[in-house]
Design a protein that fits this description.
By secondary structure, this protein is of the alpha+beta class. The chain is built from nine helices and three strands.
């Protein structure tokens, strides 16, 4: 129960150390630069990278072009990951807590995110790779009890027929021995237990 409580209060979006270091640069630029940086970052996501925008922003705001690029790319990643998870206002602010940003800065960045979140998700969905989906499984156990070379033997093999959707080949035939079958079973059981965790339940509620 104690661990479940800890999981419930963890922010959905976990920022890597490198990402936090780049986002820390946001506090080092003039406050009037934050809105332009957010707009450039979102344009990056929706329309692709535009190096000229970095140069123009650097000249207007009297900031080094490398700093502009680092800040924009870090904000771009922040907006993309937050949009994937459909973070609401509370979760977005909680995810920024490790940065120790002033509340006004958090609110400003969050405003851009909430305003354009649906557009970002739409673009990201078009860019997302589509993987085959599991539909059905049939299996049988084959046992070779003897052969001409060996009069007495036992080699159990599992034969699996996977039915898939959204795949170039919708039926796959696989063969494996007991050891590998046991390994796959254990990994699938582990994944199933993970889907029942408090954190996964929270993620599922936020993904639409």
């Amino acid at each position: 129960e104690y661990m479940g409580t800890l999981l419930c209060i963890m922010p959905l979006l976990t920022l890597s150390e490198g990402h936090r270091q780049h986002l820390a640069l946001v506090t080092q630029v003039p406050s009037e630069a934050v809105d332009p940086f957010c707009r450039i970052s979102i344009d990056f996501l929706l329309q692709g990278e535009n190096p000229k925008a970095y140069i123009g922003a650097a000249q207007r705001l009297k900031v080094d072009a490398d700093v502009v690029e680092s800040v924009v790319q870090s904000l771009t990643l922040l907006f993309a990951e937050a949009s994937k998870l459909v973070l609401n206002e509370k979760d977005f602010i909680e995810s920024l807590a490790p940065l120790s940003w002033p509340r006004g800065l958090c609110d400003g960045v969050m405003g851009h995110y909430l305003e354009r979140r649906d557009e970002i998700r739409s673009v990201l969905s078009e860019m997302t790779l589509k993987f085959p989906k599991f539909r059905d499984l049939e299996w049988r156990l084959d046992v070779e009890v003897a052969s001409r070379a060996v009069q007495s033997t036992s080699t159990p093999l599992f034969v699996l027929q996977l039915s898939l959707t959204d795949a170039p080949q919708e039926t796959l035939l696989l063969q494996t021995d007991y050891v590998n079958m046991r390994h796959m079973y254990e990994r699938l059981e582990e994944a199933l237990r993970e889907t029942r965790s408090a954190l996964m339940a929270r993620v599922a509620r936020n993904i639409k």
